UniProtKB/TrEMBL annotation, chain A:
Name of this chain's protein: Phosphate transport system permease protein PstA
Membrane-related topology note: Multi-pass membrane protein
Record InterPro entries: MetI-like, MetI-like_sf, Phosphate_PstA
Keywords from the named record: Cell membrane, Membrane, Transmembrane, Transmembrane helix, Transport
Domain ABC transmembrane type-1, first and last residues per copy: 66-272
CDD domains noted in UniProt: TM_PBP2 (cd06261)
Pfam hit, one: BPD_transp_1
Main location: membrane
Taxonomic source organism: Pontibacter populi
Transmembrane domains' residue ranges: 17-41, 62-91, 103-124, 131-153, 182-202, 209-228, 248-275
From TrEMBL, chain B:
Protein name: Phosphate transport system permease protein
Matches recorded under InterPro entries: MetI-like, MetI-like_sf, Phosphate_PstC
Taxonomic path: Bacteria, Pseudomonadati, Bacteroidota, Cytophagia, Cytophagales
Topology in the lipid bilayer: Multi-pass membrane protein
Function: Part of the binding-protein-dependent transport system for phosphate; probably responsible for the translocation of the substrate across the membrane.
Chief location bin: membrane
TM region positions: 12-31, 63-96, 108-131, 143-166, 187-208, 261-282
Length: 285, 291
């Protein structure tokens, strides 16, 4: 075999290996999804969504868990969205060049890399103990709010950055102030991108269990929470709790709850992808 | 009008400044609780004792078994994710047709969006029984299965960041290689990967940092037995799992056992903080190489 034939063979071999590697992740994903569907799909009915937790696997439901998840999502959004979007606007439009801004930037990237369980320790001490909120929904929502803050800030900045200079210049030329320009021109133009980031942040928050376990969210909550000061559980913690039990019937429950959790995560991600796609198409600079 | 503008700017600045408070809060919480911990437990014991048994009658506070467990799952995860992720990045960038790349990349991202409890369930109920069919002495909880599944989970991190780095290599270098008669394979490994090496390194470091901080997957599938071992077949415990384990129990607030989670937490924080900052530094240093 000549050298060039050998080279071509290596090239083909690597191409084959590349296809194999690309598909392996997707094949594993497919095996897993099919497996979960076989295990859990038969368990899902209206009672499963409406029942309170129970020691008997076939009577246990996820009512308290998904109500808790809903509360957490709404409360942490109320807190993290305004804060994150404002911080993103400030960093991109106002403090761009000074040392404070570059410090803020490094700090935010660092926060994005802090493991979620460390946020749990922060929430446990600051919100739970110093603020005296205990293991309540409010503590959980504030903790997760801080956790998703860097995601919102980073995506807000990126979408604002994509708005061309000329739009700002035109607005200033017409006599608009800086804030008027941001409010009437820049924010509407970057709305799609900001929404994408916000939804991705929500999808991250839905799946988090570790920080909530650390702040003291309970695995067994007999009733659905009705105020921000109530104790709570969320879907991922309920799943973790069921996985930890030895009986097979609870594993079936876990699989069923995982299907519900995945439906929520995939829906949120789907909306984000759709929004990004639609926005990129509509806005042509 | 001008006053209103100033007020708005001030409010926006405040929102940005809160992120500094968050960092300060994390460092304060970890430091203050661990300093109290280290006033009772010597830091030398903490770093050198080979046993971690704070919840038993015979208490030992050596962090090494937890660090070893964390390193072991991380190493297995990277051993899975690095070759696969890097191959995907090269394949998508140099071989795959543009349409295929555009559909595959978001599909791979799905892997990163699945909650980690779900991966834990997968490792425990599918991967471990599957591995046990040809490794009979594999325990029900083990770092091998947890690490492998974690590897699958972080493939998209390595593949998309590395692909970005490879795409950023100037076209002229690639065309130069093709012009010399190089195959795609030779161009990829002789030119593109070396030229994009800093970006690829950053993706690996970020993946390691992610694996070190991963919690639910290892808490479910890797076990809760702190053990100083490199054997991937037996149950171990990671730093993150220990924090979860204590949080689920009823350790009294303010006790020494309670403070161990902050000592474990600060160890974890130091690791990830160092990794993240190394990755910044590399990115900063090599960012403008081709401009």
């Amino acid at each position: 075999m000549t050298n060039s034939e050998l080279n071509r063979l290596k090239d083909k071999a690597f191409q084959g290996f590349g296809i194999f590697c690309t598909l392996i992740g997707l094949v594993v994903l497919a095996i897993f999804l099919i497996n979960i569907l076989i295990d859990g799909l038969g368990r899902i009915d209206w009672d499963f969504l409406r029942n309170l937790p129970s020691r008997r696997a076939h009577r246990a439901g996820i009512y308290t868990a998904w109500i808790g998840t809903l509360w957490i999502l709404v409360l942490s959004s109320l807190f993290a969205f305004p804060l994150g979007i404002s911080a993103g606007i400030y960093l991109e439009e106002y403090g761009k060049k000074n040392r404070m801004a570059s410090f803020l930037e490094v700090n935010i990237s660092n926060l994005a890399g802090v493991p979620s369980i460390i946020y749990g320790l922060l929430g446990l001490e600051i919100f739970g103990r110093v603020f005296g909120l205990g293991g309540s929904l409010l503590t959980g929502a504030l903790t997760l709010g801080l956790l998703i803050l860097p995601i919102i800030i980073v995506t807000t900045r990126e979408s604002i950055k994509a708005v061309p200079r000329s739009i700002r210049d035109a607005s200033f030329a017409l006599g608009a102030s800086k804030w008027q320009t941001i409010w009437f021109q820049v924010l509407p133009a970057s709305f799609g991108g900001i929404m994408t980031g916000v939804i991705l942040a929500l999808s991250r928050a839905v799946g988090e269990a570790a920080p909530l376990i650390v702040i003291g969210a309970l695995a067994y909550v007999p009733f659905a929470p009705s105020s921000p000061m109530d104790e709570f559980t969320v879907l991922p913690i309920q799943i973790f709790n069921w996985i930890s039990r030895p009986q097979a019937a609870f594993a079936t429950n876990a699989a069923a709850a995982i299907i519900i959790l995945l439906i929520i995560t995939f829906t949120l991600n789907g909306i984000a992808v759709y929004l990004r796609h639609k926005w990129q198409k509509r806005v042509k600079w | 009008m001008r006053i209103q503008e100033r007020i708005i700017e001030g409010l926006l600045w405040l929102s940005a400044a809160i992120t500094i408070l968050v960092t300060a809060g994390i460092i304060w919480v970890l430091l203050s609780e661990s300093l109290t911990f280290f006033s009772e437990v010597s830091i030398i014991d903490f770093l050198t004792d080979k046993q971690w048994t704070p919840l038993f009658a015979d208490k030992h506070f050596g962090i090494l078994p937890l660090v070893a467990g964390t390193m072991l799952t991380t190493a297995i995860a990277i051993a899975v994710a690095l070759p696969i992720g890097l191959t995907i990045a090269i394949y998508l960038n140099t071989y795959a047709p543009a349409g295929f790349r555009a559909t595959i990349k978001p599909m791979l991202e799905i892997l990163a969006s699945i909650p980690t409890v779900v991966y834990g369930f997968f490792a425990l109920t599918v991967v471990t029984p599957f591995l046990q069919s040809f490794i009979p002495n594999l325990a029900g909880f083990n770092s091998l299965s947890a690490g492998m599944v974690m590897g699958i989970m972080i493939i998209p991190m390595i593949s998309s960041l590395s692909e970005d780095a490879i795409s950023a290599v100037p076209k002229s270098l690639r065309e130069g290689a093709y012009g010399m008669g190089a195959t795609k394979f030779q161009t990829a490994f002789g030119v593109l990967v070396p030229a994009a090496s800093s970006g690829i390194l950053v993706s690996i470091i970020l993946a390691i940092s992610r694996a070190v901080g991963e919690t639910m997957l290892v808490a479910i599938a890797a076990g809760q037995q702190p053990r100083l071992t490199a054997n991937p077949l037996v149950p171990i415990e990671t730093i993150t799992t220990y924090i979860v384990q204590v949080s689920l129990g009823d350790v009294p607030h303010g006790s020494l056992e309670y403070r161990t989670i902050f000592a474990a937490g600060i160890t974890l924080f130091i690791f990830t903080f160092a990794l993240n900052n190394i990755s910044f530094w590399i990115r900063k240093k090599y960012q403008e190489k081709y401009d």
